[in-house]
Amino acid sequence: SSVWFRQIAEGDETAFTKVFYHYNRYIYPYVLKKVQSDGTAKEIIQDAFMKLWIYRDALKETSSPEGYLFRIVSNLIQDHFSKKAREVKMLQKVKKD
User: How far apart are CA 45 and CA 73, in angstroms?
Assistant: First the structure.
């Protein structure tokens, strides 16, 4: 699979598809457990793979492409919860006013 990541770094869309289907099996259950929503989990995964493709040049410089992908996923999960927390604060503020 590290070959696939190297190929992605070179712009190989077929390798990207292989990585998506291979790693989605592992990432989806992890994200779903964290966010407790199928739709949100799928959105996070879609965003993660989109970022992987957009920033594929970074794959040339990382020694752990899988770690890079999982870091993207973790950051998106954290962003999701930060956004939810901001929304809750905003709703509480609106209710007080």
Answer: 7
